[in-house]
Amino acid sequence: MVKGANVGLTALSENVGSVVVGLGWSSATGEGDADVSVLLLDGDGKVRSDGDFCFYNNPVAGNGSVQLLGKTPTADGSEDRISFDLDAVPQEIDKVVVAASRYGGSRFGELDDLRLTLADSAGDGLVRFAVDGADEVSAVVFGELYRRSGEWKFCAVGQGYASGLAGLATDYGVDIDDTEEDAPEPADLAEPADRAEAADLAEDGRPEPGMPAHEPPKSEEPPEESPVSRVPAQATGPRADGAPEPPAPERPTAPRPARRPRTAKKKVTLPRTTRKSLADNESWRAARLFPVPALKSDRERETRATSVVLSVMAQVPEFGRRLTAGFGAPAGRMETYTEVTLPHGESPRRPDGVIRVERAGKLWTALVETKTNGNALKPDQVQGYMDIAARRGYEAVITLSNDVALEGSPLVDVRIDGRRKHKVALWHLSWAEVVHQAQLLIRHEGVGNAAHAWLLQELLHYLQHENSGCHGFQNMGAAWVPVRRGIDDETLCQGDARALEVIENWERLVRQVCLRLGGELGQKVLPVRRTRRGSDPRALRTELADHLCEQGRLNAELRIEGTPGVLAITADLRTGRLRTSIEVPDAEPGYPLSRVKRLIRRLSEAPADLHIETLVDGQGTGPRGTLERLRPEPADIVPKDGAQITGFRLSLFKSMGSGRGSAETGFIRSVDQAVDRFHAQVVAQLEAPARRSRSAEPTG
To answer: Per-residue pLDDT tens for 377-391?
Structure first.
């Protein structure tokens, strides 16, 4: 779509009762990011209350009809996904605005490939809109969903706000702290450059640049109004009658404190520190709602894990909605079932579970197939459930296992009968994602009441118990040992399929590390993808496999919200060592020795074996040393030739586990331990001021 275009969703698909909107971008460094927000507006173009403003501190709005699903990595960068249950949007809401904002003085011009995508409940892409001309703004309205004659339509907006999130929220009626000053006016993005393009837009029924969109062209039958017309009155741009704009009042040039919208109502979270136990001694074990010690067989683990998760999903609406919103489920009453028998030829099938959601008399149904421990999904089972779902008019099949799905590489290949009018979506969920969402809710975002928080805590205890079998990705695969040996004796050649298998499993492990760390911190943690725009993820993995054969190293980078740099992980299979590191930029004024001393003071609690390298302008790295040696002699890493210090690289080294599994001596366990130690003892001490300000609760 082009800017200003609008389209009815029902003209694109029959499955638009629920849709998922994705906002994406990329950056050359892999470090650029933005926050997504959604505003639900009434007929006056304003929010009814602050609860209609959906952002990182209020991820669910509109009675659950709008939900922020978080970020997911893509081949071009990352994408924020938002679930919309359009059938459940309150009737008082006429328009839903989808926007994103940057913070800390950043602008969208530092990001590439700004885009919006819209998919239906079956996962089929319907709309793609590329946003251009956002160089100098810190917030952008990407698009709008609006009602017209009982139908939902989408409009590609692409309007920029120089004032950021606070200015955007204020224009749409969100209350801002009264002590804050007014923000600058919003600024439109660039309009079409010439009249020919404007004429093309006019032929499509879209407003011509410079012409008020609410004023229809003189014709016998005025076209429908485009939502682009209903932009805030402060938006800049020429007047339709050609008259010059009145001069804008002078504004102070001094920097102003960032204004933050008020949060939604207080929710219940569980404290991190547990209360003092009343037990006589440590041998007493608390009674648990979901006991696990008696679990013995894989079948018992699968049956109980399915029942436990599905029952909590039905009882805790926030949790159930969080897990199903991205699969196209509506926001309605949820019921879950296990061991359901469904006819299928001569031998009935029994999926592990069924999820059914009812909204306004309409049913959404998904069949669930579960695996625990290292058990793999069986293609024939999943294919059978897809056929049953298509025949019975069900919407989805959800697979749940310890494996992690990769972009462009489905875990199970199924045949889709193109002759069937009804489409069935196949989705995958990792146990690591279930744990991640439970942690976010009970530790950081909160749920509706204390009973729901307790239920989620019991679920989390069950899933993290060693007997549950729900431990996430835990095996580097059969190719791990042969690849390590081939690297040691230099017999591994480029193009070896075993190296590609190791690269795929390494990517799964890195994604799981992000989920685990993000759930514990309550912050966004994503793998950095430094790829060319439009790169094929499978071709990229093949290229990385060739590098592994040549260099013998696995590399990954994690971006943790609010940290001053990117956390890098390097597993050197030749030396058997793991390196975790971060590059900290240093642009503060002062003498070089003063800057080094300032860094060492910040690292007062860091381990003595921390390696510090000085980064110098134009020369890469300069002097280096361990923290133990530099504490008494900080001048040892000051460049002797007077070179300009641009930053520091901090690194910790650890022996790498040799086994392919997650046992104490396994590779997976060693990566988890290395990342946890580096973050707790190094990165946490370098916490950026931006992170502290953004993590604080805005005042109401």
So the answer is: 999 999 999 999 999
Phi, psi of 530 (to 5 degrees): -95, 80
* CA separation, residue 397 to residues 133, 365, 585 (Å): 41, 9, 47
Residue 655 structure tokens: 């022996």
Task: Determine the Cα–Cα distance for residues 28 and 101; give it in Å rounded to an integer.
Answer: 19
- What DSSP letter does each residue of 483-532 carry, written as one string? HHHHHHTT---TT-HHHHHHHHHHHHHHHHHHHHHHHHHTS-EEE-----
Mean pLDDT taken over the chain: 81
Sign of CA dihedral 383, 384, 386, 391: positive
Closest by CA position to 456, among listed 325, 267, 669, 276:
267
Say if pTM beats, i.e. exceeds, 0.70: yes
User: Hey, what's the torsion of the CAs at 513, 514, 515, 518, to 10 degrees?
Assistant: 120
Please answer whether residues 356 and 387 qualify as being in contact, where contact means their C-beta atoms are separated by less than 8 angstroms.
no
Q: How far apart are CA 487 and CA 481, in angstroms?
A: 10
Q: Is 39 exposed, middle or buried (0-12, 13-18, 19+ CB in 10 A)?
A: buried
Closest alpha carbon to 399 in 353, 438, 357, 437:
353
Q: How confident is the model at residue 273 (pLDDT cuts 50, 70, 90)?
A: low
| Whole-number Å distance between alpha carbons of 240 and 384 | 61
* CA separation, residue 273 to residues 284, 471, 683 (Å): 19, 24, 22
| Interior angle at CA 280, CA 279 and CA 283, nearest 5 | 80
Angle between helix 450-463 and helix 431-439 axes, rounded to 10 deg? 150
DSSP 535-566: --HHHHHHHHHHHHHHH-EEEEEEEETT-SS-
Q: How does pLDDT run across 102-151, given as a tens digit for each residue?
A: 877 788 888 888 899 999 888 888 999 999 888 888 899 999 999 998 89
- The least confident of 180-184, 398-402, 454-458, 565-569 is 180-184
End-to-end CA distance of the chain: 39
CA distance 423 to 47: 36
Local structure of residue 632 (DSSP, 8 states): T
Mean pLDDT over 568-587 rounds to 92
Residue 44 has pLDDT above 80, yes or no: yes
